[in-house]
Design brief:
The complex is a heterotrimer of chains A (424), B (271) and C (242). Chain A is mainly α. In chain A, 68% of the residues lie in helices and 1% in strands. The longest helix of chain B has 9 residues, at 81-89. Chain B is α+β, with helices and mostly antiparallel strands and 271 residues long. Classes of the chains: A mainly alpha (424), B alpha+beta (271), C mainly alpha (242). The interface between A and C is medium-sized, with 21 and 18 residues.
């Protein structure tokens, strides 16, 4: 046997009980854990942005544009783990050409394309259009070129035009919320609709995926807001941070309840697969499920946030009063724990579903490689790449509230250029 | 040593129209006394005796057929010839991670535990049993069930796996993108990813043999006729008799995949 | 129409056009002809080379061997089980020769004793059965009936024989309870031994009034498990087994 099969031979030695001979090779590894994690962040960040636009939660306004850009950065990276995983990435366009309409996975191409173009790019376009027009006027070189291209030549800054921007943005956000649900919900459905696998096959999986996505998205924006404010030496708006923490806590409570519901119902029904699944949780998945996902990733942040944030009693009246610095620290640490917890959730679903045999008689192991396309370093790179992209986006389209072009500036610009609302 | 005695105490006497004695098909004909002609023996017994020779045959019309397989685990001796023949016929990689068909041995013990094993798919037989306190033990051949409602076809995002008009589920190696969703969707563990082509692969009922009027390699070499291949569209065939005379089970029937591999008197411990 | 709509329509129009063109040029020709798949795939799979020729092919040239083989106990065993895939040999009989496994290791793949094998299937202990001699020196593979008809039932019914040998029934001959025709050794499935039909059979030894040696345990046949036949509880080959 050649060296290429050595990892599989090692897996074979560590099989406990009986697995079907074809199950030695674990098919969906770290890359397929990263993909739902990334799309979850996209959906979550967008939902947070929509809170401001649609539900008029004024306090989180400072994070609005940051959320959109974060969603875009992660969405661009999202297909990369899939392409790296495919046996034939050069044939991946077949999903667009001949999608099998019965397959949840075939929807990927269209949901992704829809979300990227019609929802995210359009929303960013409508929101930044006036800024890009005004910025371009005082710039030179690459920045001027990028901003001009961005505007697509739509330079009309008349009040009617700006009003159209505002209403179109609102409409797109409205469409965007169910689209975000679809973007991440279909990933949950890909797993939830596999009747062959009792760990995956569940009505709750798409819902759990969605709420854990919202949790991770809000936590990410919280992290980014605190970090970018520190880097830019700007005072953190505590009303905004407190509001983010409140929404994070609400989402966390719902997410935890759903996961507990799934767990309790499985234990109660105790159908055929319960024996091997309990064995799997007690042995192979103990650390990642009980410790990382449940205790450290959900319960600990939930308790911390419940105590510190003003979620239940309103601004300034938390269960435990704490000064802003402590609150920021707790929010920051909670957000990190939550990221780890949600990543573990994805791990437990994807890897967990493959650690036991469909014969319900045995357990196998997942041997994570370090190098190679399916290796640890590749996934780490794919998780760092969105931050790099975000940096580039932030440079080209600054999301900071102080950089935003105000209506007065637009009017001043119109006057100085002698414009009366005529397009270029 | 010729078999001088062609009388059967308990079975209808064979028609004496031929000079050569009847074949008994081994020692296990207790439930399937199949009167055979020499011609049928030559053809492997699974074919319709009146099929024309290949050279004169009409062009193969897929929609005339609906292929299916019956398996009698009571006849299986776990010799692994089927696994070997399948790997040879279909160029399946020899490593112990890729099987289009395999044999499982079940050892049901008196303490209620059941041990299952399939060392290298059973390709070289099985090692001696080490368990004691055995209540029942037997072999079960497994393969792709060629389901009539295949979950693997349902989930393929691009249409690379499909059911042919003659009831065989195939994979288009040139179109598969290697996403492995079908491998997860199969409840029977029948699929694997080919390490060289990076596409999904599985038992094809030796489709390239079927269109030439032959039978799958595993059926061809089974020494005890534990596998019965046939066409569900034909009432007069060994498969039809198998379906009539035995209590038939399917694997994981509750999943409603409508498998087309039928097991006779399958033990409840088999998953 | 607002300026924004104009500009966006152009961009989206280009995207849709690109997708339409892609569908027109890139979807394989035979896709969708029969179902949602490339019909040409069936042809490429059907065109694969065969390795096993099938039973019919051997008879075309080796008629005598096949006829002889079909009259003996290995009739159900296809030629290619032992001689390997023969399609290449059929195409080029002189260039490609097949081999036959003559070493002891091959026959026990089927005939080595294994309790998971059906009872009555001819099995031997590969270590103890005529050690070191090649199987083919006594058994012609095309007519594998043993040179001497086995006298002892344990030759085929090893498990039963070994269980009985350590049981209180050890001194009983198999034929004491199973009336066996000599023909059973030659065509086992056609001439089955008899099995006892009633409780009275066991009563011949175990009834209180039976004329059998005194040390045989007695049981009141009218009350002991009177609704059942004895072997529903007592495994006759090892009656003490609980």
């Amino acid at each position: 046997m050649t060296d290429a099969f050595q990892p599989l031979m090692e897996v074979l030695q560590q099989v406990k009980g009986y697995i079907y001979p074809n199950e030695v090779e674990l098919h969906w590894g770290l890359l397929i854990v990263v993909y739902p994690y990334i799309t979850g962040l996209v959906a979550g960040a967008f939902i947070l942005a929509s809170l401001e636009r649609v539900f008029n939660v004024r306090e989180v306004q400072p994070t609005y544009r940051l959320s959109l850009l974060t969603a875009l950065a992660f969405l661009i990276v999202a297909p990369l783990p899939l392409l790296a995983h495919l046996g034939h990435p050069t044939r991946s366009f077949e999903i667009f050409l001949t999608p099998n309409l019965h397959s949840a996975m075939a929807m990927f191409g269209f949901v992704y394309a829809w979300y990227l173009t019609v929802v995210l790019l359009l929303e960013i376009w409508f929101d930044y259009r006036k800024d890009a027009v005004v910025w371009a006027r005082n710039e030179r070189g690459l920045r001027w070129f990028l901003h001009r291209v961005f505007t697509l030549g739509a330079n009309d800054l008349s009040p009617r035009s700006l009003e159209f921007d505002r209403r179109a943005g609102r409409l797109i956000t409205l469409i965007g919320i169910p689209s975000a649900f679809l973007l991440h919900g279909y990933v949950g459905f890909i797993f939830g609709s596999v009747k062959a696998n009792p760990w995956w096959s569940s009505v709750l999986i798409p819902v759990v995926f969605l709420f854990s996505a919202i949790v991770s998205g809000i936590a990410l924006i919280m992290l980014l807001y605190i970090l970018t404010s520190l880097v830019r030496r700007i005072e953190i708006d505590m009303a905004c941070a407190d509001k983010l923490a409140s929404f994070l806590l609400y989402a966390l409570i719902v997410d935890f309840s759903l996961e507990m519901l799934d767990f309790i119902q499985r234990l109660y029904e105790a159908e055929e697969s319960i024996h091997i699944l309990s064995q799997m949780i007690a042995s192979r998945l103990f650390i990642s499920l009980v410790v990382l996902q449940m205790l450290l990733g959900t319960l600990l942040p939930m308790i911390a946030l419940a105590l510190i944030s003003p979620a239940f009693r309103g601004q300034g009246r938390a269960l435990v009063q704490a000064p802003p610095e402590l609150r920021r620290l707790v929010y920051f640490c909670s957000a990190i724990l939550i990221q780890m917890g949600i990543f573990s959730t994805r791990w437990n679903v994807v890897i967990g579903g493959q650690l036991f045999s469909k014969s319900l008689r045995g357990l196998t192991v997942y041997k994570m490689e370090l190098m190679g396309l399916e290796g640890f370093f590749m996934s780490a790179l794919l998780l760092l790449l969105p931050f790099l992209l975000l940096y580039l986006l932030v440079v080209v389209l600054p999301p900071w509230p102080d950089k935003e072009v105000s209506l007065e500036a637009v009017n001043a610009d119109l006057l100085s250029a002698g414009q009366t609302g005529q397009p270029d | 040593m010729k078999d001088p005695d062609s009388q059967d105490q308990r079975l209808p006497s064979p028609d004496g129209s031929l000079e050569t004695p009847m074949d008994r098909r081994g020692f296990l004909a207790r439930s399937l006394p199949v009167p055979l002609t020499l011609l049928t023996v030559l053809q492997g017994g699974q074919q319709e005796p009146d099929q024309p020779k290949p050279a004169e045959a009409a062009p193969y019309k897929a929609s005339d057929h609906n292929y299916s397989m019956g398996i009698d685990p009571a006849r299986c001796i776990g010799c692994g010839r089927c696994v070997e023949a399948c790997k040879t016929e279909n160029d399946v990689p020899r490593e112990p991670f890729y099987f289009r068909t395999w044999i499982e041995r079940y050892v049901v013990q008196t303490d209620g535990q059941t041990m299952v094993a399939s060392p290298n798919g059973g390709i070289a037989g099985f090692p001696p049993i080490t368990e004691t306190g055995i209540l029942r033990t037997f072999f079960v051949p497994k393969l792709c069930n060629q389901c009539a409602a295949p979950p693997c076809v349902q989930v393929c995002p691009v249409g690379a796996t499909f059911t042919t008009p003659d009831g065989v589920v195939l994979v288009d190696e040139a179109y598969c993108i290697g996403c492995r969703y079908c491998i997860h969707a199969c409840p029977y563990g029948a699929r694997f990813l080919h390490p060289v082509s990076h596409t999904a692969e599985k038992c094809t009922f030796c489709y390239h043999r079927l269109v030439k009027g032959l039978i799958p390699a595993c059926v061809e070499v089974c020494p005890t006729q534990a596998r019965i291949f046939g066409d569900l569209n034909r009432r007069s065939s060994p498969l039809s008799r198998f379906m009539r005379m035995n209590q038939i089970q399917q694997l994981k029937a509750h999943l409603n995949t409508a498998p087309k591999v039928f097991y006779a008197n399958l033990d409840g411990e088999v998953k | 129409m607002p300026q924004q709509i104009w500009r966006l329509s152009i961009v989206f129009g280009l995207l849709v056009l690109a997708l339409a063109l892609a569908r027109l040029f890139l979807v394989p020709e035979t896709f969708g002809r029969i179902g949602h798949y490339r019909a040409a795939a069936i042809d490429s799979i059907a065109a694969r080379k065969i390795k096993y020729a099938g039973r019919r092919a051997c008879a075309l040239c080796h008629g005598e061997v096949v006829t002889n083989h079909a009259a003996h106990r290995h009739a159900g065993v296809s030629c290619e089980v032992c001689h390997g895939p023969a399609a290449a040999h059929v195409d080029a009989p002189a260039e490609v020769r097949l081999t036959a496994p003559k070493q002891r290791g091959y026959c026990p793949l089927c005939h080595g004793y294994d309790p998971s094998r059906p009872t009555g299937f001819p099995q031997i202990d590969p270590v103890a059965h005529n050690p070191l001699k090649p199987c083919v020196s006594c058994h012609n593979p095309h007519a594998p009936e043993p040179p001497r008809t086995p006298e002892h039932c344990g030759a085929c019914h090893g498990q039963i024989s070994r269980a009985k040998a350590v049981s209180p029934h050890a001194t009983l001959e198999c034929t004491q309870c199973h009336r066996t025709d000599k023909q059973h050794m030659i065509s086992p499935a056609q001439r089955r031994p008899s099995i006892p039909a009633s409780r009275a059979f066991c009563g011949q030894c175990h009834a209180p009034e039976a004329a059998s040696p005194k040390d045989i345990p007695r049981v009141d046949m009218s009350t002991h498990g009177e609704r059942y036949v004895c072997w529903q509880c007592h495994y006759p080959h090892f009656p003490e087994l609980k």
